[in-house]
Amino acid sequence: MRDPLAAFVGCNRDEIALLRNATEANSYIANGIDLKPGDEVLMTDQEHPGGEHPWNLRAKRYGIVVKKVTLPKPVENPAQALNLFSDAITPRTRVMFFSHISTFSGVVLPAKELCALARRKGIISAVDGAHVPGMMRLNLHELGCDLYSSSPHKWLQAPKGSGFLYVRDEMIDRVWNTIATEGWDDVKLRAERFQRIGSSNVPALWGLRASIQLANDIGMDRIEHRQLATTRPWRRSHVVEVPLHRQRDHRAVPTDHPRRQQRRLAGLGRADQRNRTPRPLPARRPTRRRMPLTVLGRQQRTPRRHRPQRPEG
Ligand SMILES: Cc1ncc(COP(=O)(O)O)c(C=O)c1O
Question: Which CATH number does 2-210 carry?
Answer without folding.
Answer: 3.40.640.10
